[in-house]
């Protein structure tokens, strides 16, 4: 059209110019009026303008078309760039490794990558614009993922649980970032289920016992701590703690082996667990020690009732590796827990109650009361004092003569230890030997005592050896007896002071010999081979039978004072029992010493029974070293005055 106009205007301008020239000449020649000339001039001017206009239009059109072309090129370029960028981002979105989602403002998922698709078990079609992000999370995760105003928490590593199509739960780590310039967000989800499982296993191992799979001490303490706190918050919440220890478990281990021991522990744990409610906690604290936390119970003696019931349950034997094994246990109970602030204090008291239950014998339980705690504190103080006493050599040995009943002369002594306490004065062994045993202090104490006693014996024996051979009896506690160091220590002492071993007699109680039968036989034999003599102390108070003792190379039986003190010449007097012991011992080639002879009647009856030796207040109380020195002097001067005669120990008897 513009071109057509252009041509028309050119024709008009051309013909206008020709006409203008024609009329100009004509008018000049004919001198006609200028009217037609002006008209033509006007037409010419208009035509010229038109031409100018058209030219302008043409130029603008050309410029427009050129810029159009550039624009089109740019659009193509941008579209290409955009497509490339989309491909790039889609590839990243798809292949980031993590499950990735685009989440709209209203939580709808508008885009999900294939990792998320396989992760969730839903198809893309079921997810995109169909599901809300929170549909995939459990209740607790909702609280994690949304802030107080219900918006997604941005830029954090949030641990959540994702529920897949099969309603299985996965542990995931979610990071959410806003998409700039939009109200959408991109969420990236990483499956950390394996990591969490490993973490769970590690923490399980840290808080559970591997053998029984029960909570261990740390976890139990944590439960106990929570129970204490709950008790402080709620008036109606009560709990109790039981501490239990299998009686003589060591015997099972030693006699049937560790595998049976382990199986017994597992069966034991199962039986106890089966007797408890789900909310109670049974834990293995180590070895054969267990603890129970009874929660949400009635106030009162619920713990003791449970202890009683469990002890009933434990009366049935366990069948372990085809063997019937009994596993009674001692229980310590803390029923009144409301005043406690620390779990360690409850455990300490339950343990101490259990310890007292053990002292009562097998399969007992004891409820903790404050007095037990005071007693425990007292024992602790004793232990500290005892350690100092060894250091400061506060022990003294007293010697009680052992006499031949026939001649009433001294044949030896029993060394009896005393503790010369700086504040409490002379303390007798019954008050400290058990603590010394428990703390292991008995070993250095015995060593000191044996050394002193043997040393003293040498000086006395040197003076009277022409009249009588003297021996020294020393008491060895049952826990110490089986220690391999004992014989070594004794040998060292005897070598050092040059005393032949046949002057030393070791007094042990029956229980010591019953501990570990096979080991005991070997040990006693080794002691005998070395030259020491073995004496059974307090005979009759333990469980052993003479037929059992026959297996051991024992030299002497000391009949316990409780039998001797009751012998009378009446049918109900203990005479028959003592007589039976004496004659059996003689048949087994053992010497008999009667302990605690106090009266003339006892003495004559014992003599009548052919009991060879005696010891007791009738002859002499335990004496200090200097008193024995005097006694030895008297013996010497008596024998000088009465050659060939022994010095009779009591004046009472000579009447
Ligand atoms: P044990 O070995 O049976 O010693 C005899 C105890 O009976 C001694 O008590 C002695 O003083 C006392 N006794 C002796 N004759 C009579 C009597 O006629 N009447 C009465 N009522 N008592 C008499 P002690 O010295 O208090 O010793 C008590 C126990 O302590 C001893 O009993 C012994 O088992 C233990 N013991 C003493 N010294 C030691 C020691 O050095 N080491 C160890 N491990 N235990 C010791
Ligand atoms: Mg003794
Ligand atoms: Mg005794």
Could you explain how this protein is built, in words?
This protein has 655 residues and is an alpha/beta fold. It has four domains: 2-90; 99-197, Beta-Lactamase (2-Layer Sandwich), CATH 3.30.450.20; 208-368, 2-Layer Sandwich (Alpha-Beta Plaits), CATH 3.30.70; 380-627, EAL domain (TIM Barrel, Alpha-Beta Barrel), CATH 3.20.20.450. The protein is 51% helix and 18% strand. It is built from 24 helices and 21 strands. The strands form four sheets. Strands 13-14-16-17-18-19-20-21 form an eight-stranded mixed beta barrel. It has a five-stranded antiparallel sheet with strand order 2-1-5-4-3, sandwiched between helices. A hairpin with a 2-residue loop joins strand 7 (281-286) and strand 8 (289-294). Helix 14 (442-464) runs parallel beside helix 23. The protein is rod-shaped, with a radius of gyration of 54 Å. It starts with a helix and ends with a helix. The structure holds ligand C2E and magnesium ion (2 copies). One magnesium ion is lined by residues 414, 475, 507, 537.
Summarize the structure.
The chain is of the alpha/beta class and 655 residues long. The protein has 24 helices and 21 strands.
Domain module tally: 4
By DSSP, the count of extended strands is 21
- Counting helices, strands and paired strands, the structural category is alpha/beta
Determine and state the CATH class of the largest domain.
Answer: Alpha Beta
Poorly predicted ranges: none
Tally of contiguous helical segments:
24
Q: Identify the bound ligands.
A: ligand C2E, magnesium ion
Distance between the termini: 170 Å
Looking at CATH, the homologous superfamily of the largest domain is: EAL domain
CATH architecture of the largest domain: Alpha-Beta Barrel
Radius of gyration: 54 Å
Helix fraction, binned, reads: 40-55%
Going across the biggest sheet, name each strand in turn.
Answer: 13-14-16-17-18-19-20-21
């Amino acid at each position: 059209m513009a071109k057509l106009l252009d041509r028309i205007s050119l024709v008009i301008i051309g013909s206008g110019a020709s006409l203008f020239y024609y009329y100009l000449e004509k008018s000049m020649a004919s001198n006609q009026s200028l009217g037609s000339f002006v008209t033509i001039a006007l037409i010419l001017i208009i035509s010229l303008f038109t031409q100018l206009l058209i030219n302008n239009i043409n130029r603008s059109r050309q410029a427009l078309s050129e810029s159009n072309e550039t624009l089109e090129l740019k659009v193509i370029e941008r579209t290409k760039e955009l497509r490339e960028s989309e491909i790039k981002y889609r590839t990243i979105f798809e292949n980031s490794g993590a499950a990735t989602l685009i989440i709209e403002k209203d939580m709808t998922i508008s885009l999900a990558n294939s990792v998320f698709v396989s992760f969730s078990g839903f198809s893309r079609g079921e997810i995109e614009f169909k599901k809300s992000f929170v549909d995939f999370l459990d209740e607790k995760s909702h609280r994690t993922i949304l802030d107080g105003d219900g918006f997604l928490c941005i830029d954090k590593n949030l641990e959540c649980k994702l529920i897949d199509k099969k309603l299985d739960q996965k542990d995931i780590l979610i990071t959410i970032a806003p998409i700039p310039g939009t109200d959408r967000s991109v969420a990236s989800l990483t499956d950390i289920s394996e990591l969490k499982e490993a973490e769970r296993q590690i923490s399980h191992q840290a808080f559970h016992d591997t053998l029984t799979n029960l909570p261990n001490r740390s976890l139990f303490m944590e439960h106990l701590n929570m129970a204490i706190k709950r008790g402080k918050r709620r008036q109606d919440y009560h709990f109790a703690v039981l501490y239990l220890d299998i009686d003589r478990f060591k015997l099972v281990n030693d006699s049937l082996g560790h595998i049976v021991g382990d199986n017994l522990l597992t069966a034991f744990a199962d039986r106890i667990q089966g007797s408890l409610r789900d909310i109670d906690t049974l834990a293995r604290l180590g070895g054969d020690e267990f603890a129970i936390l009874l929660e949400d119970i009635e106030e009162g003696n619920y713990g003791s009732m449970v202890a009683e019931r469990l002890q009933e349950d434990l009366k049935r034997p366990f069948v372990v590796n085809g063997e019937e094994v009994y596993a009674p246990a001692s229980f310590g109970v803390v029923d009144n827990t409301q005043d406690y602030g620390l779990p360690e204090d409850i455990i300490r008291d339950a343990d101490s109650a259990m310890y007292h239950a053990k002292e009562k014998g097998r399969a007992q339980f004891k409820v903790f009361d404050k007095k037990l705690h005071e007693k425990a504190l007292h024992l602790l103080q004793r232990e500290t004092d005892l350690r100092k006493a060894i250091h400061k050599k506060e022990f003294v040995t007293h010697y009680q003569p052992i006499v031949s009943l026939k001649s009433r002369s001294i044949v030896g002594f029993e060394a009896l230890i005393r503790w010369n306490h700086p504040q409490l004065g002379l303390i007798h062994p019954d008050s400290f030997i058990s603590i010394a045993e428990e703390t292991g202090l008995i070993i250095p104490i015995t060593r000191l005592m044996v050394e002193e006693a043997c040393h003293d014996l040498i000086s006395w024996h040197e003076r009277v050896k022409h009249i009588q051979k003297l021996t020294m009896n020393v008491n060895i506690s049952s826990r110490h007896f089986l220690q391999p160091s004992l014989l070594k220590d004794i040998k060292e002492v005897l070598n050092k002071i040059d005393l032949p071993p046949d002057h030393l007699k070791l007094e042990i109680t029956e229980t010591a010999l019953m501990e570990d039968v096979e080991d005991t036989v070997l040990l006693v034999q080794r002691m005998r081979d070395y030259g020491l003599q073995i004496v059974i102390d307090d005979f009759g108070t333990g469980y052993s039978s003479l037929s059992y003792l026959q297996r051991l190379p024992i030299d002497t039986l000391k009949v316990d004072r409780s039998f001797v003190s009751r012998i009378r010449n009446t049918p109900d007097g203990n005479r028959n029992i003592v007589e039976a012991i004496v004659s059996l011992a003689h048949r087994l080639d053992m010497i008999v010493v009667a302990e605690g002879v106090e009266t003339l009647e006892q003495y004559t009856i014992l003599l009548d029974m052919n009991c060879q030796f005696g010891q007791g207040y009738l002859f002499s109380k335990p004496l200090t070293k200097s008193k024995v020195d005097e006694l030895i002097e008297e013996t010497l001067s008596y024998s000088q005055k009465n050659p060939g005669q022994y010095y009779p120990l009591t004046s009472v008897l000579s009447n």
